[in-house]
Amino acid sequence: MSASGTEEERPELVCQLEHIQGLVDALSAVRWKRHQDAVLELSEHGIVLVVQESGCLQAKLYLKRELFVRYDYNAQVRPRFGLSLGIFVECLNAFSVPAHSTPIQIQYPGPDMQLLLKSVDSMDASICAEIRTRIPETVAWDYNFEPAGTNPLTFTVKL
């Protein structure tokens, strides 16, 4: 098998997070309703999560690569995919153990694939979750409704 064939099989992103609760809190801050959808964009600098409501309210959550114990980005172009924010938060909560730090690995194999969550360094149990992703609708990163350039309410959370 050629080197390029091996590289094609590598996931576009593999990252490991030591403390889940901070991520859960940040995601919960931009989750306005139970069935909230989000768009994630992956890059060599980190992950950007965007949620919007009725085309008039938008929130962005920036997760810098420095937040992760491990951050291996292997994509040729910036992957973007949609997922259910509610399911993502609930899955992360399943990994959370009170008064105990449970590291998890997050893996995105590639387009039209499931986001994989897996507990690491756990002697007692192995927890895995797969979250269905979808091709996102076009998301306006910065709204501009009128020629005057008035923008709707936007807030940003940076970790």
Strands of the biggest beta sheet: in what spatial order? 5-1-7-8-9
Helicity level: 10-25%
How many domains would you count in the coordinates? 1
- Any guess at the CATH architecture? Box
Rounded Rg: 17 Å
Query: Total number of β-strand segments?
Result: 10
The end-to-end span amounts to 40 Å
CATH class category name: Alpha Beta
Instruction: Quickly give the structural class.
Output: alpha+beta
Q: In DSSP terms, counting alpha (H) and pi (I) runs of 4 or more, how many helices?
A: 3
Beta-strand content bin? 35-45%
Under CATH, the topology can be stated as: Proliferating Cell Nuclear Antigen
Question: Ranges with pLDDT <50 over ≥5 residues?
Answer: 143-147
Subcellular location: Nucleus
Keywords: DNA damage, DNA repair, Nucleus
Main location: nucleus
InterPro entries: Rad1_Rec1_Rad17
